[in-house]
Write a structure and sequence with these properties.
This protein has 2 helices and 4 strands; from the N terminus they run E-H-E-E-H-E. It is of the alpha+beta class and 93 residues long. It has one domain (25-90): Alpha-Beta Plaits. Strand 2 and strand 3 (64-66) form a beta hairpin. The longest helix is centred in the middle third of the chain and has 5 residues, at 46-50.
């Protein structure tokens, strides 16, 4: 079987509507999701800073939550958390 290159892609699969990324639930791609133990959180914000998808947001009380609509389950937030507030668990249907 021949290896395909980008030139072999079907052009019809390209989405041409600008500004439509917000309507795609990229969280559907994940296999693991972050779960937080907020009682351990020291509000350092490292999870928020390092999240590559901007899926983490600060709450009014200074803690942080994850928007699972956009979270891809990469686990960077859990790896960067110095207090082990975040653990990655297998996504269940």
């Amino acid at each position: 079987m021949a290896e395909l290159t980008w030139r072999d892609l079907n052009i019809g699969n390209i989405i041409t509507d600008p500004g439509n990324a917000g309507s795609y639930c990229t969280g559907d791609w994940r296999t693991d999701r972050p779960v937080r133990d907020q009682s351990k959180c020291n509000k350092c914000g490292l999870c928020w800073i390092y999240c590559p998808e901007a899926a983490i947001y600060p709450t009014e009380d200074g803690l942080f939550e994850t928007n699972l609509f956009y979270c891809k389950g990469c686990g960077i937030c859990a790896a960067e958390c110095p207090k082990s507030v975040i653990t990655m668990v297998e996504e269940k249907e």
